[in-house]
Amino acid sequence: MQLNRAYYYDEHCQSGFCPSDQAMRLDAFSLTLRVLHMTASTAALASFEESRELLHDLAGVQVSTKQVERAAKALGAEIAGDEQRQVVGGKEIIIYEESSALPR
């Protein structure tokens, strides 16, 4: 699949970006949302290497073992952060900090 998107270059920062990459989360993982979902699902059940092989065998998707590892770790961190926050009465509260003991 080929994707065409706008690319912008900032001469002052000497860096470029594609705004649509952020919406599709390509800026963080270089994987489409569907492949990211498949990566997370396989990495939750198997090793990173086995996940890479499953993605190739079942979906024809070529990703490196390191990409599987990075995506799984980043998504795990996001999930942990979400679990630490809870919305009560329209306000977000932190249930516990990672460095503190769990509430009793």
Strand order of the largest sheet: 1-2
- Tell me the span between the first and last alpha carbons: 51 Å
Could you report the average pLDDT, rounded to the nearest whole number? Answer: 78
Number of strands: 4
Describe the model.
- The protein has five helices and four strands; from the N terminus they run E-E-H-H-H-H-H-E-E.
- Helix 3 crosses helix 4, helix 3 crosses helix 5 (65-84) and helix 4 crosses helix 5.
- With 104 residues, it is of the alpha+beta class.
- The N and C termini lie far apart (51 Å).
- Residues 100-104 have low confidence and may be disordered.
- Helix content is 52%, strand content 13%.
- The strands form two sheets. It has a two-stranded antiparallel ribbon. A two-stranded antiparallel ribbon has the order 3-4.
- The longest helix has 20 residues, at 65-84.
- It has one domain (8-84).
Topology, pairings included?
Blueprint: E1 8-10, E2 15-17, H1 19-23, H2 26-29, H3 33-45, H4 48-59, H5 65-84, E3 85-88, E4 91-94
Antiparallel strand pairs: 1-2, 3-4
Helix pairs in contact: 3-4, 3-5, 4-5
Task: Record keyword descriptors for this entry.
5 helices; disordered C terminus; 104 residues; 52% helix; single chain; alpha+beta; two-stranded antiparallel ribbon
Summarize this, please?
The protein is α+β, with helices and mostly antiparallel strands.
